[in-house]
Design brief:
Blueprint (H helix, E strand, L loop, with lengths): L2 E6 L3 H10 L5 E7 L3 E3 L4 H5 L9 E3 H4 L6 E5 L2 E5 L4 E4 L2 E4 L2 E4 L3 E3 L5 H6 L1 E2 L3 H18 L5 H7 L2 E4 L3 H15 L1 H5 L11 E4 L11 H13 L3 E3 L4 E4 L3 E4 L4 E3 L2 E4 L3 E3 L16 E3 L11 E3 L4 E3 L13 H14 L17 E6 L2 E5 L6 E3 L1 H13 L4 H17 L18
Parallel strand pairs: 1-2, 1-9, 2-5, 9-21, 11-18, 12-13, 12-18, 13-14, 20-22
Antiparallel strand pairs: 3-4, 6-7, 7-8, 10-19, 15-16, 16-17, 23-24, 24-25
Length: about 425
Amino acid sequence: MKKKIVIVGGGFAGTEFVKTLGNSDMYDIILVDVNNYNFFPPLIYQVSTGFMEPSAISYPFRKILRDKKSVRFRLGELQKVVPSENKIILNNGGFAYDILVMATGTESNFFGNKNIEENSLPMKTISDALALRNVILTRLDRATRLRTNEERKKLLTFVIAGAGPTGVELSGILSEMKASAIKKDYPELSEEDLGEIYLIDGLDAVLAPMSKKSQDYTYQKLKEFGVKIKLNTLVKDFDGETVFLSDGTKIATENLIWAAGVKAKTFEGFTEESFGAGKRLKTNAYNLVEGYDNIYALGDCALVAGDKNYPNGHPQLAQPALQQAKNLAKNLSLNKNEWKPFTYFDKGSLAIIGRNKAVMDFPKQKGALKGFIAWFIWIFVHIMGLVNFKNRLRTFIDWIGYYIYKDQYFRMIIKPTPRKEEK
């Protein structure tokens, strides 16, 4: 009898796992996800600003799985895990498993601040990106109807909390929009009307995990773009009209974009002892969750012990997730005495700042690249990271168009008609 593997989450880890093990004769696999598509998180900021369409960075699971004879897809949202009965409960039913693999990723961490959670704009999902795109375009249009410069500036000032890759990339692309596309499309608005772009972080550098060379280059280029950077500063509160900072500064704006932190998604059914820092599930070197003999965790939701180079856990990035998934899938194809513990191979770090401007750190920060070469490598790596050739070709064409014309083509306000949600 084949064993049944249920894997929850179809991000980097979940998709890589089913690609590697999907034609196994040993297992029947069910992939569960709240969405019916896989998407590429590093590029959602380009969807949010109208530089790309959502379909360029997303792809239906059922089409991905067509040639995986041992895999079936189930659309649903995980509600609860029942380890004592080897089953999971979804919002639309549930089923049993022999092996459970958690690859549920992360969600925005608002650090308990309800005002920020309710009023800010997160950047985690395709839905978040489309919501932000609608907000940006709606407020630009609304600004053309306002009478005073003060009202327009408040509406078109953007505060980005978090100076990691997402915050840096978003502030860079917004500054490019401000300098080109917005001027062309909104002749009613003057330079003064367009407001400011603020990048806020509680640490003392942008791109904190990267090398000082990359940090300094990024800081300088963002300043040249006109981005106002405030470091060693926290966003304390946001009431929808004013951002309150820890240094006492108040910024009049309706736009706080939250990219300041993430935490692993948690679900009922696990013991408190199963969770470590950032609510990640603690696992051994084989990704087996502590306290269980048939539950594994991968990627951002896993805190893997046993890798001497990462005693505090691996970075919550695509490469650790992909490598963990491939290692576990291969292990499950072998006898237990042949299993290999997970060891992360660092391939370096990349971040884009703007057109022709990016930074790249080599593994273990043994050198860095900046400028056009790093930008070109960033383009190549992100295109190859997309799920199939069609997505890669479409994205490449979109970027070539922007590079030539300094303009983007997807500035549509699309708001779905509210309907009763199907389960």
